[in-house]
Known about the structure:
By secondary structure, this protein is α/β, with parallel strands linked by helices. It contains 15 helices and 10 strands. Strand 2, helix 2 (57-70) and strand 3 form a beta-alpha-beta unit. Fe (iii) ion is lined by residues 1, 103, 240.
Amino acid sequence: MKKRSIAGMLAILTLAGAVLTGCSGNSSTTSAQTGSGSQQGGNTSQVVNIYSDRNYETDKQLLEQFSKETGIKVNVIEGKSDELIERLAREGKDSQADLLITADVGRLHRAKEQGLLQSVQSDTLSKNVPENLKDKDNQWYGLTVRARVLVYAKDRVNPSQLSTYEDLTDPKWNKKILVRGSDSIYNQSLLASFIAINGEEKAKAWAKGIVDNMARTPKGADRDQAKAVVAGEGDVAIMNTYYYGLLLNSSDPEEVKVAKQLGVFFPNQNTTGTHINVSGAGVTASSKNKENAIKLIEFLSSEKAQKQFAEANFEYPANPAVEPSELLKSWGTFKRQDINLTKLGENNKKAVEILNQVGWK
Ligand code: FE
């Protein structure tokens, strides 16, 4: 989902040497500082350093706006989520990072468990981010929301045949279900939600039932499952909403064609609701610019920033005062799982264990 092409448009700056030490191969450093006047009288404390797995033109514009409004210079180190968390751990208290922005509660919770984040009290964040979309100890805040839905082959499946995640384990779907591997944090979090809602035993039975109905041994990522449905390998795939949005808006006409042959279905609408997850931000334990980091999360959670921030990746805003994009609205409103997302992190280890036990590759 990375749009690497915009990297070239961003000014490459050099951060403090400590930040770049041990830099993983594909990380890049950019600055959202906007010309003169952004720094206040050479006061280098007016800065905030972000480790982020996002690379969108929209983000760049938002960060520039933040710099303009506050005079705080923003430096961004981009990289893959797990690598950024590993890097934070490796750097320890010497890390120059103030803010970690990454996708999925499972990952945010891992950072929390390793002591890499810290609690933040903020009235603005309490107001902008609903209780269930943030860490129960305020160590991370959800900023965008995605749903893990079903996509189906419109020419072979009538949506009236679909109902719940649980129904996908019915023998009628034998060899028809496409889903990525158990190493995917998205599947771990999905199962973690079932552990929270239905208990361990039922969650395990569900995972086993899905393995029994898989059209193939899991391979590829979410979009590959959608493509496999269109190629006739199976009838229904489990995928995150933004990947459908990305396919539909792809610069590759073949991907657009794939999206157009698929329908989107929000499962469990009459029962426990569709699984949701977030992309979010947490202030690092090592932060040297904590106040600036908090200001930046507050800014990103604000009504004026939320729509743009979410739409960059075809996601739903976390701030309930902000409407989703027209595309997302066209899929209709839906009932969400009613759990505190902190649970997804807390149940992650159990979920991984179950996925291994049932042979989900
Ligand atoms: Fe993703």
